Structures are given as C-alpha cells and as structure tokens.
Amino acid sequence: MAEIHRGLADVAIDTSQVCNIDGERGELIYRGYDIRELADKASYEEVVYLLWNDDLPTSTQLASFRADLAQIFAVPASVHDALSVVPQGVAPMHALRTAVSMLGSLDLDADGVDDANVRRIGMRLVAQLPTVVAAFQRIRAGLEPIAPRADLSVAGNFLYMLTGEEPTEAATRVMDVALVLHAEHGSNASTFVARSVASTLSDVYSSITAAIGSLKGPLHGGANEAVMKALEKIGDLAGVEQHVLDVLGKPGGRVMGFGHRVYRVLDPRAMVLRKVAEKLAAESGDSLYFDMSLEMERVMEREMSARGKQVRPNVDFFSASVYRMLGFPTDMYTPVFAVARISGWMAHLYEQYADNRLMRPRLVYQGPTGRKFRPVEDR
Ligand code: ACO
Q1: Residue located nearest, by CA, to atom 4 of ligand 1
Q2: How does pLDDT run across 56-102, given as a tens digit for each residue?
C-alpha cells in the first residue's frame, strides 16, 4: 500500500535551483542570497532576473531587462473590455484569473513549451499582471485605466497606474520591498499547482491561471485579506485578545496570518514587513492596525506556547497593514501578492518544462468493494 502523506507534508517532488527555506532557522534564500539582504538592497527587477537566471544581473543586463519589460507593460484593449464586463462586487482575484486566461487566448503562440517561448510568456506576465490589477481597480471605480509609463519600475508603475500620480520614492521602495519578499517561496501550494499543470505539458497560461486560483484561498495568499477583514471587524486594540480567544475556542479555529507548513520560527518575511509596517505607521501618525497586529502577535504567542505549539506570524500577517497604509482596498491584497509571485511561478515553470515528469500521485482507496450491479428498477 502506498504511504499516505496528507497535504503532501515533507514530500519532495523534485530538485530545484531557485529557492531554499530553512524552517527551523527561519531562513529564506533565493539562489544563494538571503531574503533579508535582498529586501534591504535589491530592486524587484533584479530579483526577478536572479530567480530566472544563475545570478544577479550586471548593470547592462539589468538595464536591458528593464527596457524589455517596459516595452510590454501595456495589455491589449480587449483585456480592458473583458475586465469592464466583470460585474460590480466581483473580487479582483476572479478578474485577474480571467484576464490571464484571456491573455492566453490572445497569444497565438500560447501552447509552445520550449524554453524560449515559456520565457517570452514569463516576461509578458511579469510586465502585465500589475497593469491588469491596476486597470481592474480603475474600471470598477468607474475610472479610465491609466497607460503604463516606460520610465517607471514595475513597483512605481503599479502605484502610478492606480492613481495617475507619480508615486514618491519612499512609496515605490515600500512596494519594491513587498514585491521582493513575495516573489518566491519554493514549493508552496500555488507553485506546486503551477508545476503540476505544466507537468502535463499544458501551456503557461493554464498553469498560471490555476496557480492564481490556488493563491486565492484563505489558507494561502488569501490570508492577507482575511487578516485585514479580521482587524476591521475587531475595530480597536481592546477587542484583539477576545477575538483570538474566540477563534481558538472553536474546533479547528485558525487565526489568519499565523502558522506555516515549513517555518517553526518567525517567517523572515514577516520580520522585514513588521519593520516596514512600524515605519509607515509612525510616519502616517495612524498606528491603529499596526498596534492591533502587535497585540494579536502577543496574545497568539502566549496562547500557542501554552498549547505547546509553534505558530508564529507569516508573510500575510504584516503585509495586510503595509498594504492598508499604501492605500490598497482590502480585496486587492491577494492580487498584489500574485503581481509579485508570478516571477516565482515562472522560475519554477522554466525548471519544470526543462526536465519534465508528469505529476501523478496516488490515493489510497477506502471505499466499498465487491458490489454487484443491479438494474435501476431493482434498486
Ligand atoms: N491559528 C491557530 N492554530 C493554528 C494556526 C492558526 N493560524 N496555524 C496552525 N495552527 C495549529 C493547528 O491547530 C495545529 O494544531 P494541532 O496539531 O493540535 O491540530 C497545528 O498548529 C498545525 O497546524 P496545521 O493546520 O496542521 O498546519 P498546516 O501545515 O497543515 O497548515 C497553514 C499551515 C494552512 C498555513 C495553517 O497554519 C493555517 O491555517 N494558517 C492560517 C491561514 C494563513 O495564515 N495562511 C497563510 C500561510 S502563508 C502563505 O501561504 C503565503
């Protein structure tokens, strides 16, 4: 009988050169570089280049990579048309999933899975996911989408396309850091889904559409929205403790933004984002959600230690308050995650297509056996 690993916990599906996570030491490494150093010093474009190649770019390579991306920031008008028929009130993750599928339908070479074609599509998706998310936000607010500017970075352009105003250097840097931190995370649920779809030799757009669906779930990328909704519902510092106790008091209750399959200590990305959120809160003079987050962390630490569990904040926990301070509506938090994670998904698709084996695990059957068919009138 096959051995059962529920949730594929601790199952390695292949080797990878892209990223390493040490859950005991709280380390996240992109191709040999510590995430804390990259978040401190690197731009998102440098990190995308790193994830897709052996090492960081030289200045010439970076300039040409940026220029190549800038040429394809804009999406076809028919994608705007498709976004404008999405009914009011539909969450942007649905719109993003639809738009990526539409981009695939518009691409006459969508099905080619040779390395050159997969990388061409990867460039397109990294350049255009921010454009799609920003356009949908404008369209649903009854505003015209704003055309991307070739002179801005991915982070700067995203902020610009949301408001039409050139963002400050400080806001662009915060966005850049968020993109770097969310870019890649090994064989997480959505990356596994992307690799799994690609393993049938289906196309990149199908793999990424499926990955977006996986990221959307509240146990994965959707947790950042769930965190903010919980904070909004609680409303003040005094209500945090009772909220945590209420959630933990329910069978199987999960406090959103806490816990991780791999990390047993603090997620290094949460550590960086906590500092970013603290700085933004101090600068804005509005620290309510940050203070509530710290209080939630304190109560969870106490309650989880009392239960002998190691459940710490994950990347989604502090990203929620950072995104709020950047002015994003709550249901845009997970699409912003996708805007970053597309680079990691693509890095894994390059590996998967380059040396493919169909993903096909098993289930252990526990249903009835030996039944005999009787015609419907005899049942
Ligand atoms: N709140 C309360 N208890 C928790 C939490 C939490 N957020 N997370 C884990 N635990 C406890 C569980 O009760 C469980 O206890 P038990 O062994 O007594 O049943 C133990 O810790 C292990 O938890 P599992 O759910 O079995 O861990 P798993 O690895 O399957 O799940 C997951 C990880 C899904 C992230 C889980 O921690 C969770 O549901 N967290 C809340 C949602 C969330 O924040 N997701 C974002 C993750 S980061 C990302 O995807 C980008």
Answers
A1: 254
A2: 999 999 999 999 999 999 999 999 999 999 999 999 999 999 999 99
